[in-house]
């Protein structure tokens, strides 16, 4: 494909005039159909360098005068041409040409512009109208490209938001799987134990049934009865049901407790994963903190010990799954900020109609330049795959939607503290915006 410079496409190949051609001739030539689109004709010297432009309106002015043609007609065109036409080199970009031309353009527009090659030799004419059309086309094209870029950007943003959700979901699943393992382990053990402990009971029951049959059967031999009696006695001793009762009770209670824990985790998981924006019942935020801690435990345990100081809180209306997401992100960030084994402190309290939650770590902290940008979407200092840079911007939005705010203080080398405050009366606002 031939690459045509943008201006080249505007080129109108108009035969140039020599300076000595008469004004009458020029006037006649301008009337020719191939020249209807141009406002002027170019005049060049013997080498083909542009000397000027003679415009339709100038000729019209002359011929409108009394005896205009007689007075001027035989004179050379060089006498009436504009000797300082707009000259643009063909390799100029469209934008630059537009800039040059608008800078020099006179209004009303009486002239076209002359297009020359690198040697400055005349190549053709361009018209302002063509240039405008080309610019308009270019702008429309750019707009299309920009619109497409915007759509792509939005799409990738949605994908990233999704991947941040998936990352916390993955974390949560790993955490919950781990938490499920403990009760599952001892429920399994207990069931095994119960099976072993109940086996002699079943054997005893069998023996006692056999003894009963014997007793009820008048034809049962003395020997058989004696044997059945002895067997039942032996198995009774072995099974020791009176001693077993307490153990069994304990085992059943433990197993029940384990199952209950599993059940709670499953319910918690369901709550946590509820990514809808359901504005919910009144919630004790300490429950959210505990549930986030359970879920984050797995990713924190090798990094830091957690200290909780949870004060009594009024219940507030909020979307617990969203608050959980915020807490999980703060806890994960704190754990990821640890250089050695550190300490994370989670506190909650309420004052002045607000619930406050602080998450403090003694990790690496942040210099000012980082601190200023942490709530920006996609800002992350973590390697690819570890950070999406969306956690805090999503958290910020969630807390803002709840009518609260999130603040942070940090000192490099000493640690960071995030403070969330949520209004106790946030419920109304949230319901209105939901
Ligand atoms: N507790 C913290 N200690 C130190 N730096 C933090 C802490 N929390 C957040 N940051 C900084 O803020 C950045 C943005 O955090 P975030 O929005 O959660 O995205 P991500 O964790 O995916 O990087 C992190 O990359 C990190 O530089
Ligand atoms: Mg994060």
Characterization of this structure:
The protein has twelve helices and 13 strands. The two termini are 56 Å apart. Helix content is 53%, strand content 16%. It is rod-shaped. Mean pLDDT is 87; it is low at 427-434. Helix 4 links the parallel strand 4 and strand 5. Helix 5 runs antiparallel to helix 7 and helix 9 packs antiparallel against helix 11 (391-401). The strands form four sheets. It has a five-stranded mixed sheet, covered by helices on one side. A three-stranded mixed sheet has the order 1-2-3. Strands 4-5-6 form a three-stranded mixed sheet. The chain is of the alpha/beta class and 434 residues long. It has helices at 23-30, 56-64, 68-72, 94-104, 128-216, 222-239, 241-273, 285-300, 320-336, 368-371, 391-401, 426-433, and strands at 17-18, 40-44, 50-55, 86-89, 113-116, 122-126, 282-283, 304-310, 316-317, 342-351, 354-361, 405-411, 415-423. The protein has three domains: 6-126, Roll (CBS-domain); 160-273; 282-433, Heat Shock Protein 90 (2-Layer Sandwich). The chain binds adenosine-5'-diphosphate and magnesium ion (MG).
């Amino acid at each position: 494909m031939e690459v045509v410079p943008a201006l080249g496409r505007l080129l109108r190949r108009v035969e140039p005039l020599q300076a000595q051609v008469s004004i009458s001739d020029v006037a006649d030539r301008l009337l020719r159909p191939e020249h209807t689109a141009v406002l002027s004709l170019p005049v060049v010297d013997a080498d083909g360098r542009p000397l000027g432009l003679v415009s339709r309106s100038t000729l019209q002015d002359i011929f409108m005068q009394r005896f205009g043609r007689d007075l001027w007609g035989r004179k050379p065109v060089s006498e009436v041409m504009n000797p300082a036409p707009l000259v643009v080199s063909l390799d100029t970009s469209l934008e630059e040409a537009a800039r040059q031309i608008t800078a020099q353009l006179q209004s009303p527009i009486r002239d076209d512009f002359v297009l020359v090659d690198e040697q400055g030799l005349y190549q053709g004419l361009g018209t302002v109208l063509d240039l405008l059309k080309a610019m308009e086309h270019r702008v429309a094209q750019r707009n299309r490209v920009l619109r497409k870029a915007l759509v792509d950007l939005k799409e990738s943003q949605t994908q990233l938001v999704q991947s941040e959700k998936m990352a916390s979901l993955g974390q949560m699943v790993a955490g919950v799987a781990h938490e499920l393992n403990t009760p599952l382990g001892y429920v399994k053990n207990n069931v095994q134990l119960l099976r072993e402990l109940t086996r002699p009971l079943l054997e005893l029951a069998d023996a006692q049934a056999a003894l009963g049959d014997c007793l009820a059967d008048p034809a049962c031999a003395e020997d058989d009865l004696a044997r059945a009696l002895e067997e039942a006695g032996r198995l009774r001793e072995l099974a020791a049901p009176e001693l077993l009762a307490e153990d069994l009770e304990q085992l059943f209670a433990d197993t029940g407790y384990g199952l209950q824990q599993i059940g709670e985790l499953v319910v918690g998981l369901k709550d946590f994963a509820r990514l809808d924006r359901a504005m919910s019942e009144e919630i004790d935020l300490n429950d959210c903190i505990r549930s986030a801690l359970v879920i984050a435990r797995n990713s924190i345990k090798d990094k830091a010990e957690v200290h909780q100081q949870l004060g009594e809180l009024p219940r507030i209306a909020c979307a617990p799954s969203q608050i959980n997401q915020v807490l999980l992100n703060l806890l994960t960030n704190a754990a990821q900020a640890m250089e050695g084994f550190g300490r994370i402190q989670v506190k909650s309290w309420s004052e002045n109609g607000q619930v406050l939650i602080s998450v403090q770590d003694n990790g690496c902290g942040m210099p000012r330049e980082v601190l200023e940008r942490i709530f920006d979407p996609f800002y992350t200092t973590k390697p690819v795959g570890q950070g999406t840079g969306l956690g805090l911007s999503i958290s910020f939005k969630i807390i803002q939607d709840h009518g609260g705010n999130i603040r942070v203080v940090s000192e490099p080398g000493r640690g960071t503290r995030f403070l969330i405050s949520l209004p106790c009366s946030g419920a109304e606002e949230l319901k209105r915006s939901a």
